[in-house]
Amino acid sequence: MTDRDLQQKRYLAAGIDIAVLLAIGILFLVVGSILGFAFSRASGTSLIGVYLPRVIGFLGALVSLGYVLGRDVVAGNRSIGKQTQNLKVVTVTGAPIGFMESARRNAIFAIGSGLHVISATLQLVPCLGDAVNCLLVPLYILGGLISLAAGVYEILQITQQADGARYGDKMAGTRVVRA
User: What is the pTM of this model?
Assistant: First the structure.
């Protein structure tokens, strides 16, 4: 496989992983909304209808953060995207990676998910959560912009580095190879 082929497969794998992350978020949003609506209609009180979606949103935020950090060990020691593209992440010595290497490798992308966990946690606190969450909107926007900039930087690293190693690979001592 040429470096160009490996680059293209890495881009496709990343796109698939982003789609999986979006699907996780949409799933938790839909389930939380449906259950919140159902419980608020059935019980006649809106307390369960208000907080059940928040609890489900909190769980969704945790699952999303876990997927971002541990995606390279989720499906048979490969991300779902890498599995579809027949790629895997190994240490520079060729050994399989564990959760900590995956977390170090993907930490740069976890900023937005980490802020989502903070937001979802604050939403669990009555009244205070809504007020504080509203004040943190600029921080969430900044986190999204940082994640976007990190993605662009990492793409440039894959393209420009002779070995195709991105910053996360260097931080974790890993590389992407054909499975």
Answer: 0.87
